[in-house]
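I would love for you to help me understand the pair of lines that follows before we discuss the fold together.
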Amino acid sequence: MKTDPEAFIRANTSLMAPPHVPEISLHLASEAHELWQKTEEELEAIGLPPPFWAFAWAGGQGLARYILDHPDMVRGASVLDFASGSGLVGIAAVMAGAREVTASDIDPWTETAIRLNAGANHVSLGFTGADLIGRAVDADIVLAGDVFYDRAFADALVPWFERLAAEGKTVLVGDPGRSYLPRERLEYRAVYQVPVTRALEDSEIKKTTVWRFCS
């Protein structure tokens, strides 16, 4: 890693509340387009992957909203926040009363972003940078926001989520209509109209649905 993640995050983000989850504050890019542009220009120089952790994506906002509105889903449970990014969904799970929450993401920058965001909300999350796809999961509930945006990634996730659901784990997905969402394997739970950044999405509001994955 060629630059200090904490220094970069503090210099290029502001502490703010995602519009659909005002209870939570995150270090987010105030001008999404500028940070994406900077990332592309400086990627090789500073070793920064695309900063997914710097934005509150619609799927994560919808799933976090659902967890805060239905705390019984996670209260007292152990939770895995898969592909956590900023840690938004995991933070919501802690606030809703989960016994233990582990955020997972293979981007090494997310560990720092999640630590800073957890601290800003006075909660504690575990973290793993391991690639968990296909592995056994020591958690009661798996939460995944906005993960079906890529065909290859979706093809790997679907059988894994199916297996976890068949083992009796609750797998909840927040999705704003991404192309590779496996609707035939999902059970509807809730829908939200989530404000998003036009620089990242094709509109200012994304209809975002929370689904439960069926075995």
Observations:
- The chain is about 35% helix and 25% strand.
- The chain has a mean pLDDT of 91.
- The two ends are 40 Å apart (CA to CA).
